[in-house]
Write a structure and sequence with these properties.
The protein is of the alpha+beta class. 30% of the residues lie in helices and 39% in strands. The strands form 3 sheets. Strands 1, 14, 15, 16, 19 and 20 form a 6-stranded mixed β-sheet that branches. Strand 10 and strand 11 (252-259) form a beta hairpin.
Length: 375
């Protein structure tokens, strides 16, 4: 074999080896580019649809605890913020003036009763004397008038005594109902002038149950309360779920008990109110509340993992893997969150659509991927 043939053979072998190596590397590179992702299909379930509304809670009843008499504040018998029972003594005000008024009224009543007794006996005597012509008819009439005046004086004296006793009772300020009470607006030892205008000492809240007030759109109300409203949904109005800004140890539901008879023409809304029991004392007047109001049932709702849904300038989307194993950017329309982690999809996919649940930041539209089906 000559040198030319020898070197030609070496060159041809090198070209074949290089070509084979190049093809092998290209195949290996292609295999490495196919990302493995987890996919799943939408979950089909019958769910109740809710719409959320902001609202505020306020105590079922509240009242200003006031002083209605004059005098020095002698005592305050509670600590601010505590629960006080109905009838509990909250404040005492100096009663000397009003004790004296009661005694004076009692004396006036005794005098009036004595005068009536005398006038009554005199009237009876005059009537007997008139029968024997010992007195004139005018004297009898005068005696009857004196007796009637004495009777009226008794009524006035009793009214005055009642007023005096009432004013005396105002010196002891009691809780009108059971509830939580604020701190006092005035310290013990100060003089109170409550006769001219009642003086507010504190405010009492009956928060054994609270009312949550919120407003809904008139169109939503028509959908909820129309003739075709689902009876099962109407039953759920007895247990409307509530959420609060801060997580509380217990869950709360409320009973829808009030619907405004008119719609606010300026806002196109009407007011609804729900009542929620407060057995653990965790709820307070003025709390911000989110009301989850049920309005419809969907027997075949498509639910996807909320974390798999992306958002861009065009709206919400999912990455769906087609039959060719390629990722497809798929715009979707969504509804509310269900079971905290699932979200309803109303448009854009089918029950058979395989959507990506992992490596969401690595996939892109048109990318070939390897899929692993998960639940």
């Amino acid at each position: 074999m000559n040198n030319t043939s020898f070197f030609g053979l070496i060159f041809a072998s090198t070209v074949v080896f290089a070509t084979a190596s190049s093809c092998g590397n290209k195949k290996s590179s292609s295999g490495e580019s196919e990302l493995t992702v987890n996919v799943t299909v939408p979950e089909i379930d019958s769910i109740t649809l809710y719409k959320t509304y902001p609202g505020y809670a306020y105590a079922n009843a509240s009242a200003d605890v006031v002083a209605r008499v004059n005098g020095q504040l002698l005592s305050r018998n509670y600590d601010g913020g505590t629960l006080v029972k109905k009838g509990a003594v909250l404040f005492t005000i100096e009663p000397t003036k009003y004790n004296d008024a009661v005694r004076q009224a009692q004396a006036a009543l005794s005098t009036a009763q004595s005068e009536y007794e005398y006038a009554s006996k005199q009237c009876q005597a005059m009537k007997k004397a008139f029968e024997s012509d010992a007195v004139s008819r005018m004297e009898v009439i005068q005696a009857e008038s004196n007796m009637q005046q004495a009777e009226a004086a008794i009524k006035n004296a009793r009214a005055a005594l009642s007023t005096a006793n009432t004013n005396l009772s105002y010196c002891t300020v009691r809780a009108p109902f059971t509830g939580h009470i604020t701190s006092s607006t005035i310290d013990v030892g100060n003089y109170i002038n409550g006769e001219g205008s009642p003086f507010t000492l504190a405010t009492l809240y009956d928060d054994s149950s609270l009312v949550v007030s919120f407003a809904i759109e008139d169109s939503q109300y028509e959908r909820m309360m129309g003739d075709n409203a689902d009876p099962e949904i109407k039953a759920l109005y007895r247990k409307v779920p509530l959420k609060f800004e801060e997580s509380l140890p217990h869950e709360y539901t409320a009973d829808l008990f009030y619907t405004s008879p008119s719609i606010d023409k300026k806002t196109g809304t009407l007011t609804l109110k729900v009542m929620v029991d407060n057995p653990y004392g965790e709820l307070r007047d003025g709390m911000y509340v989110t009301v989850n109001l049920p309005y419809d049932n969907n027997p075949r709702a498509m639910l996807v993992k909320d974390a798999s849904i992306g958002t861009d300038q065009l709206g919400k989307y999912l990455y769906v893997v087609n039959d060719s194993g390629k990722v497809v950017y798929t715009p979707v329309e969504v509804g509310g969150v269900y079971r905290d982690s699932m979200r309803m999809v109303t448009k854009g996919i089918t029950p058979e659509s395989r959507y990506v649940t992992s490596a969401l930041l690595k996939v892109r539209d048109g990318m070939p991927v390897k899929t692993v089906m998960t639940k």
